[in-house]
Amino acid sequence: MTPQWPSWPPPPTDEQRRALLRVLDSGRWGATSGTATEEFAAAFARRAGAAHGVCTVNGTVALFLALRALGVGPGDEVIVPAYTFVASATAVVLAGAVPVAADVTKETLHLDPVAVRALIGPRTKAVMAVHLAGAPADTEALRALGLPVVEDAAQAHGAARHGRPAGSLGDVACFSFQSGKAMTAGEGGIVVTGDRALYERVWALHNVGRRPQGGWYDHPEMGWNLRMTEFQAALLHPQLTLLDGWIDRRTRGAAALAEALGDVPGLDLVPVLSGTTRHTWHLAMLRYDSGAFGGRPKAEFLAAMAAEGVPLDAGYRSLSRLPYVTSPAPCPVAEAAEDSVVWVRQSMLMAEGAAVAYVARASRVVRRRFRR
Ligand SMILES: Cc1ncc(COP(=O)(O)O)c(C=O)c1O
């Protein structure tokens, strides 16, 4: 029987309901009058190994703020991986700079530090280390290049590299709380950093250029209203105690999936980057070898799997194809991934083992049919 895939987000808890009602009844719905946002920012930052946090309207804006706080602006370039969500690049455009796409490694699809090094020029101001699928990027190698590193941790709440949490691996880190993310309030984002001066700049930029102790109409810096609401913080705070359980569930799901795929030639988990000590399995990325599936293209495989009740995801198109992203060097790995990588989303990984194994069962059925 086709499994019922768990919904995401999970049903709200009593604690979330109470927290939401507390904000509602308080009448203090905005972060400038209530305390929920600030309390959540502090708790989330602590959990991410950073001293400071600033909640924002979404993850894209968090990246924009991090870049602007680093001084990125017109005339600058920021190197981004070619295989990532488009916001990693559009946040750079929003900051007035040029996103430059670097290829990813063939093995793990994470940003390739060798490709990054080749693209560094006089205008390069920062590198965007995307923690793809819930596993941190190779931040030691990226930091060794000598440029500020912005962690795009939109997919990596609770992840760790060499025992250090995502959020503490670069100069500044950004998370998303959009609907599909591992912690969510429908929308939202946060910037975290251990650098007090960067934090103060982000704070001012997201709060119309105010200073923490300054007057309401004092705007010594240029900034915007990019604040989160108290309702979002109320929904998010209780999720900090649920996050580990959710990650454990997905980790079990990913292990069950890997085992079940063992006897499906042509469909393999993309290897995890070495040094990853906590993968949060936001996605399980699978490599589809059409040669083992009767030469049938990925799109046909996805359609056939969907017909079997397994809605997989086609994943990213390479950013190197976009007119607003500069690609001085080809990105053959990211471009090849368009035809050969499929994703199992986090909600499917939350299913118990037997249900996740159904992904492998369905792919065996499809493979048999394709090879007839
Ligand atoms: C890697 C990555 N970066 C940035 C974002 C942007 O976050 P948001 O949708 O909250 O703006 C997302 C998700 O949407 C993402 O997956």
Task: Report on the architecture of this protein.
- The chain is α/β, with parallel strands linked by helices.
- It folds into two domains: 14-240, Type I PLP-dependent aspartate aminotransferase-like (Major domain) (Aspartate Aminotransferase, domain 2), CATH 3.40.640; 243-371, Alpha-Beta Complex (Aspartate Aminotransferase, domain 1).
- 37% of the residues lie in helices and 15% in strands.
- It is built from 13 helices and 13 strands.
- The strands form three sheets. Strands 1-9-8-5-4-2-3 form a seven-stranded mixed beta sheet, sandwiched between helices. Strands 7-6-11 form a three-stranded antiparallel beta sheet, with no helix packed on it. Strands 10-12-13 form a three-stranded antiparallel beta sheet.
- Strand 6 and strand 7 (164-165) form a beta hairpin.
- Helix 3 (59-69) packs across helix 7 (196-206) and helix 9 (239-260) runs parallel beside helix 13.
- The longest helix is centred in the C-terminal third of the chain and has 22 residues, at 239-260.
- The chain starts with 13 loop residues before the first helix and ends with a helix.
- The model has no long low-confidence stretch (mean pLDDT 97).
- The structure holds pyridoxal-5'-phosphate.
- Pyridoxal-5'-phosphate is lined by residues 58-60, 84-85, 87-88, 130, 152, 154-155, 176, 178, 189.
